[in-house]
Design a protein that fits this description.
This protein is α/β, with parallel strands linked by helices. It has one domain: Alpha-Beta Complex (Inosine-uridine Nucleoside N-ribohydrolase, Chain A), CATH 3.90.245.10. 39% of the residues lie in helices and 17% in strands. It has helices spanning 15-27, 42-55, 78-81, 103-113, 126-134, 138-141, 162-166, 168-175, 186-189, 196-205, 209-227, 239-246, 294-306, and strands spanning 6-11, 29-35, 62-64, 118-121, 144-148, 181-184, 193-194, 234-235, 251-256, 258-260, 271-273, 286-292. Helix 1 (15-27) packs parallel to helix 12 (239-246) and helix 1 packs across helix 13 (294-306). The longest helix has 19 residues, at 209-227. The radius of gyration is 18 Å and the shape is globular. The chain binds beta-D-ribofuranose (BDR) and calcium ion. Residues 14, 16-17, 39, 77, 80, 122-123, 148, 155, 161-163, 237-238 line the site of beta-D-ribofuranose.
Length: 311
Amino acid sequence: MTAKIKVLMDCDPGHDDAFALIVAAKFAEVLGVTTVAGNAPLSHTTKNARIILDLCGSNAPLHSGASRPLVAEPIHAAYIHGESGMDGANLPEPSRPADGTNAVYFIIDTVRANPGLWLVPTGPLTNIALALRAAPDLVDKISGISIMGGGRFGNRTATAEFNIWCDPEAAAAVFDSGAKIIMSGLHLTHQIMANPKRIEMVRAAHAIVGPMLAGLLEFFSKMYKSLHDDFEGAPLHDVCAVLALTHPQLFTSKETHVAVELDGSHTRGMTVIDDRHVKSRTKANTQVLETIDADAAFAVIVDAVSSCVKS
Ligand code: BDR
Ligand code: CA
């Protein structure tokens, strides 16, 4: 059997972050989890991360990090995730608090002690940008950064996806860092929706945890459907950033250059993907994921849910 890929998850749970953690717990070696403010304030995202780690029986260390973006004002996403950041299910209280409050130094120490690690951010990129700024040597020590963020269209604005829009300065620093980047943008993540049939598969996958997670997906999907013309459920955005590493055969992709717009009055937070065919285009810095085999990916998610340990 090949060794599991080593990851550090940086997240803002978040319904879809929860599923990213569950899939990582089953199919990767999770060396740590850090939290950031994003979908909800930091205290909420940290509590939610602990609850999910408990559900999947993970002993990975959990450290909270940035409570606000580098420059932008903090704005959360209760309109999608509810006030708690993970509304919709009767979840157990966390078994214990976070193991520390300095995610940035935890990221630095963990990378230096584990060269070849992948960083997997599924929220605003504040913690990752701060770690790379404090310790530029990390770029050469990690295998890369698998990001859920950006895309060929936006959700928070017409051009900007929420994670990048929340902290564009951090995102720009990460895309410009020289690290290998894999990007799961909205044009990819909208291909994997939690439709009613898939929610029932999650419910049936585990006697205790299945109904809780199905409740999360029902809430998440209700919110998405109420805000969109034509969605059959909520996209499981953040799972893609994990599957890109653990199940790369599920994706197609292209290598190209991605820049983050910081100044435009209509485009701040946009990921500018260079699709030109000209030979003079900027050198590629990102593997942009284009398509996913959604049914196969959902089977992987259900398998991970069935491995949760809560009884
Ligand atoms: C991203 O924003 C959040 O709502 C989700 O957790 C995901 O990380 C999608 O735009
Ligand atoms: Ca997220």
